[in-house]
Structure to design on (331 residues):
């Protein structure tokens, strides 16, 4: 994300940072090295004590934030936005984090709580400008970032099952590639699965989609093996991240029951690494619905809850990948 130089930039950036256009929300954006770090969103109204606000500030500290931007999207008929912003500011100050901006949005108007010049920030506020008129939106699209969803409900719809996933014949096609951990040909199946992941990814990188339904079914089946899944987890780099993200979400929507958890955790991991925490959590819900005790889903839940910086997670994934590759293909 480019540098934010005005409230207009900030309003336009937030949907790209969290994946959808927020309402009834408190959003906290960390700033470090003169750039945007992570963004956190929590539901508003907030019925929490001081400890809650301190926990949010602690996540910013973990991200290495030097400063923060705060935006409250106040629900209609609520009037405690100033108090919530004041408590958030106090918690950040206790953590040694500077407040660069604190904005209240209500009924289509916004005002800064840090600006006391009534010619710039009148007490009644100023109209929120159209978000698509910001340079931030244009620059984000040019950079390849997906357009934010209109609402959280729309975001959730992006990870729901499609009609194909319910077809019995599709389940049979996917099940043919299931990896039996007791098979004497286990390593051969793992190699085949890892190769299939790369072949499918190359299709998405080249064309943005794949029409090879046999290959998609094959990959979904092979991901039942933990080694193949872990290989897939580390297969992308910065250049191929968008293609892999598109691929995992496409496969997640097509995965039949019993085969959802592996690809849902892959979608959750890459969304989190992309800074899209809301999409990551939505994908993780799909994983737990399919397999409540799935180990990678439990691990990712802990990572998300602890507020791990995405770059730290990416580093862990990168360190694991050569070991997994060696285990599958040998030295």
């Amino acid at each position: 994300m480019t540098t934010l130089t005005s409230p207009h930039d900030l309003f336009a950036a937030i949907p790209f940072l969290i994946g959808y256009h927020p309402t009834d929300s408190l959003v906290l954006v960390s700033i470090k090295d003169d750039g945007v770090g992570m963004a956190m969103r929590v539901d508003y109204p907030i019925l929490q004590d001081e400890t809650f606000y301190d926990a949010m500030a602690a996540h910013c500290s973990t991200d290495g934030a030097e400063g923060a931007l705060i935006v409250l999207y106040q629900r209609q008929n609520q009037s405690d936005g100033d108090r919530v912003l004041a408590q958030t500011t106090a918690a950040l100050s206790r953590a040694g984090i500077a407040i660069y901006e604190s904005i209240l949005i209500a009924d289509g108007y916004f005002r800064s709580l840090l600006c006391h010049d009534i010619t710039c920030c009148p007490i009644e506020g100023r109209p929120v400008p159209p978000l698509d008129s910001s340079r931030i939106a244009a620059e984000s699209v040019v950079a390849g970032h997906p357009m934010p969803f209109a609402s959280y409900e729309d975001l959730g719809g992006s990870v729901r099952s499609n009609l194909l996933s319910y077809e019995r014949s599709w389940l049979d096609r996917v099940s043919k590639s299931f990896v039996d951990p007791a098979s004497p040909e286990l390593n051969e199946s793992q190699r085949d699965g890892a190769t299939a992941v790369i072949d499918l990814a190359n299709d998405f990188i080249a064309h943005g989609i794949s029409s090879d339904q046999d290959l998609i079914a094959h990959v979904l089946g092979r991901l039942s093996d933990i080694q193949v899944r872990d290989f897939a987890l580390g297969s992308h780099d910065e250049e191929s991240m968008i293609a892999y993200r598109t691929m995992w979400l496409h496969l997640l929507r097509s995965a039949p029951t019993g085969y959802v958890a592996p690809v849902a955790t892959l979608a959750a991991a890459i969304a989190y690494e992309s800074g899209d925490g809301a999409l990551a959590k939505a994908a993780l819900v799909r994983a737990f619905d399919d397999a409540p005790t799935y180990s990678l889903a439990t691990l990712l839940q802990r990572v998300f809850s602890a507020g791990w910086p995405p770059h730290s997670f990416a580093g862990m994934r990168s360190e694991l990948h050569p070991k997994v590759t060696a285990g599958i293909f040998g030295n």
